[in-house]
Design goal:
Blueprint: H1 5-14, E1 16-19, H2 25-42, H3 49-54, H4 65-72, H5 76-84, E2 96-100, E3 135-140, E4 152-154, H6 158-169, E5 187-188, E6 196-200, E7 205-207, E8 216-223, H7 234-237
Antiparallel strand pairs: 1-6, 2-8, 3-6, 3-8, 4-5, 4-7
């Protein structure tokens, strides 16, 4: 697989690209069957719902074939290597099962931005530490034809905004929360089941409230270049360091 000029431009300028229909319907259905089967058999403990939102639903499935095959048995590795370089992306050993259930909110509101790996009270990242990686891959398992249905939401271009900020001020403020930087308007992504997103780790993102009638299903894979150190913050201050499939943009 090769990235076209438009896809490269989307990654470098916006910080993400969507590839429609990359995951076959049979793989989507296998994952949905496993997830819904787990929800029906295992249920969801009411006092664990926020922890599951922050980490993963159906934790017993994160390394199971129906989840990992969304990556390993699809063209997703080829997409990742097209961006990060051939043989540079070890396959993930887990996938985060990210569900967003309908919420009875009086009116819609935009989500709060974050980047993954910041410490939080429920997400499993130890206080005082940051966990970095190279790229976020999302496989969408449900159609989202409109906004405020639990849509994955991005702030386009914020990977570049944050790089400049971290170069000037360092990354320590991430230990206490998202930096105060000027942000563009958020963009809720309209996708269909089987669509795939590849995004830079440093792209600010969130999940919109789900005011629709259906559960939003997605699985996220956090991908690291084979030379990436998860304890290093160089991927935040030199954001194209390991994106070997892209022409290195000038700062």
């Amino acid at each position: 697989m090769r990235l076209g000029d438009a896809e490269k431009r989307a990654l470098t300028e916006d910080g993400y690209v969507i590839v429609p229909g990359l995951v076959p319907r049979a793989r989507v259905d296998a994952a949905l069957q496993a997830i819904n089967g787990s929800l029906g058999e295992q249920g969801i403990a009411r006092d664990q719902i926020w922890t599951l939102r922050a980490q993963t639903f159906c934790p017993e499935l994160v390394g199971a074939p129906p989840i990992l095959d969304l990556y390993a048995a699809t063209p997703l590795p080829a997409l990742a290597e097209a961006a990060l370089g051939a043989d540079n992306v070890p396959p993930p050993s887990t996938g985060q099962i990210a569900l967003r259930f309908p919420q009875p909110l009086a009116e819609p509101r935009d989500p709060y931005p974050h980047i993954d790996g910041m410490p939080g009270p429920l997400n499993g990242v130890e206080p005082g530490t940051l966990h970095t990686f190279t790229a976020l891959a999302a496989v969408f398992l449900s159609d989202l034809p409109a906004t405020f249905q639990g849509n994955f939401t991005v702030w386009p271009g914020t990977h570049r905004v944050l790089e400049a900020h971290f170069r000037a001020h360092g990354t320590d403020e991430l230990l206490d929360g998202f930096p105060r930087v000027a942000m563009p308007p958020p963009r809720q992504l309209i996708v269909r089941a089987g669509d795939v997103l590849l995004a830079h780790h440093a792209l600010a993102h969130g999940a919109a409230p789900n005011l629709g009638p259906h559960v939003r299903y997605a699985v996220f894979f956090r991908l690291s270049h084979r030379n990436h150190d998860p304890g290093s913050t160089t991927s935040l201050t030199d954001i194209w360091r390991h994106w070997e499939g892209l022409a290195r943009p000038q700062p």
